Amino acid sequence: MVNETLNVERINWKDLHLITPEGVKQWGVDTEAPELLSPTLNETLICNGCGHYYRPLVYKPGLISPDQFCNQDCGIYFYNGSTKDFSRWAGVKGSWGAILEPIGQVAGSEPSQVRRAEAVLVTQIAGVCQPGKQHHLLDNGVLVPSFKLNLLIPYCEDHYASNNGAVLKFRISENGLVFSPIEPLRKYFL
Ligand SMILES: [Zn+2]
Ligand SMILES: [Zn+2]
């Protein structure tokens, strides 16, 4: 659990999806490991201002820049809200979230919680375990596939006691997600 480090009033955050390598490749990103992607997964959006087509970006700790920023739609969307909002809504929307700081120009202001930045610096990522109506943040656990959209859903080992159906273990390091096999070894990504 990583709640201690999130003990601040308001934070900037974004919901994310963890996608299998096969799913990530559909967006033209070559990878051998699952990646955290922004949540616009089933559509390619076109900016009403400049006509740029934008696709999901890969997120990890560090600087994330979109290919385009303009004064209409392009840029990185994020929320400004409470830490409680983060664990609740990142879970509902994507099962994963990033805490970030906007870099450069930012569009959007109070009372809207939705903002748009020229770039962001991701300072922390977390999984959200959601057994029933509970939810809590994770820095390690197991991944269960949901083949709709190639998602990988995180659970803590307590709330997913048997590991039946889980395909990988994960932990979050300062550099991002680290994966390891579940014993007995299942041939999934190997
Ligand atoms: Zn644009
Ligand atoms: Zn749990």
Give a verbal description of the structure.
With 190 residues, the chain is mostly beta strands. The chain has one domain (3-180). 8% of the residues lie in helices and 44% in strands. It has 2 helices and 14 strands; from the N terminus they run E-H-E-E-E-E-E-E-H-E-E-E-E-E-E-E. Strands 1, 2, 5, 6, 7, 8, 9 and 10 form an 8-stranded antiparallel sheet that branches. The chain has a 4-stranded antiparallel sheet with strand order 12-11-13-14, with no helix packed on it. The longest helix is centred in the middle third of the chain and has 11 residues, at 83-93. The protein starts with 9 loop residues before the first strand and ends in a 10-residue tail after the last strand. The relative contact order is 0.20. Residues 3-7 have low confidence and may be disordered. Residues 129, 131, 136, 155-156, 158-159 line the site of one zinc ion (ZN).
Defining key terms:
globular; disordered N terminus; single chain; mainly beta; binds zinc ion; eight-stranded antiparallel beta sheet; 190 residues; four-stranded antiparallel beta sheet
In short:
The protein has 190 residues and is mostly beta strands. It has two helices and 14 strands. Strand 13 and strand 14 form a beta hairpin.
Structural category: mainly beta
Helical coverage, percent range:
under 10%
Low-pLDDT segments? 3-7
Average residue-wise pLDDT: 85
Overall tally of domains? 1
Please, how many helices? 2
Spatial shape: globular
Elements, N to C (H/E): EHEEEEEEHEEEEEEE
Percentage of residues in DSSP E strands? 35-45%
Rg over CA atoms, rounded to whole Å, is 17 Å
Number of strands: 14
Associated small molecules: zinc ion
